[in-house]
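Incident log entry.

Two folding requests arrived from the same account within the same minute. Monitoring flagged them as a possible duplicate submission, but the sequences differ. Recording both here for audit purposes.

Request one:
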Amino acid sequence: MQIIEITDTSSKETEAYFHLTDAQMRSKQEPEKGIFIAEGPKVVGTALAEGYWPLSILIRRKFLETQQGMDLLEKAGDVPVFTADDDVLAALTGFRLQRSWILSAMHRQPERKQEDVLAGARRVAVLEGITEPSNVGSIFRSAAALGVDAILLSPTCCDPYHRRSVRVCMGSLFRIPWARTDSNLAVPELKRQGFACIGLALEKESIPLDDPRFLNLPRAALFLGTEDTGLTQDTIACMDHLAVIPMEEGIDSLNVGCAAAVAFWQFRTR
């Protein structure tokens, strides 16, 4: 383990923590060559446990000296470990640090194919055009907690490895299978594999989420649309059913992350 004291942000080795944007850390042509930032003991520990390979670690000195901190560094293997006192790190980052402050720059894993993540799945979430990283992270966290087996993302969804998404999902991104998919191809393939395609949408023909027709479906794919306009009309036209969450008068919708959690609970396999 190589422990390196830092006093500024100018070194090439630490630029991912201080200077690179999420877009710069992502490699569109070869995603597996991109990197991302994991933040916090739980997220870093889960990524390591799920086989993600760290490039380096940036850790608060006081946390480095704890047993929990040392255990995380041992799991990370022989990678550079950058550290500094609180005053230095606060000056570099612009905020005071939490007690167990740790970041890790990590390699992305190769993206999976749609057919691979669907194998054996009973409950699938399909995200269409969701662009807010916090919403994507929240949906991954709810999906992992409430029995969703896989997630498909349209080309217009934000990057799940976005720093804010990784932070919000609390490690769920590393545990639940997911893949990018062309929205036009997702529906036919899901139906071919026996999934009932259900769109969450505010349409006249939508039926309540707790309708008996949704009970005990062998395989179900729940489609969730963009924060502003919801699912596209093309996608709505392809659905087997449209569903809506029953609400009090005067309220017609929830944030997509909250709506996803409600729907995942209703569609969980018993």
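Request two (distinct sequence, not a duplicate):
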Amino acid sequence: MTLINDILSNHMLICAVVSYFAAQIIKIIITLIREKRIDLHLMFASGGMPSSHSSTVAALCISSARVLGVSSPFFAITLVLSAIVMYDAAGVRRAAGEHAKILNHLLEDLTSGDHERTEAGLKELIGHTPLQVVMGALLGISVPFIIPLP
């Protein structure tokens, strides 16, 4: 039981998990408002507004600063990790999504006509725009201030 109590009282972990799920719930709400439909698969999907990757690492970073202080090596680790994840989300993963769009379009052109397309296309929504990353980061920064320190 001590292990479970330790996990449930870990402020840094709680902030990261809450921030992730908050971002995913916001994605569902945005889809509901824009498209008038509930898409529960977004709860575990990547891409979209806000970036759950950015919110998770930002919450981890800020909560480590609040719990351990900015001079802590753990804060330094989470700060560098956050920068890498956010850069990757807006850079490499976004570019991969753009490439997937182009490949899907080419595949559709090649298989149109007499051929029937049997395979699903590549996933296109895997990265984020800079605005999605920033909004995710702002969400992640706010969560550790909302959840009280133990």
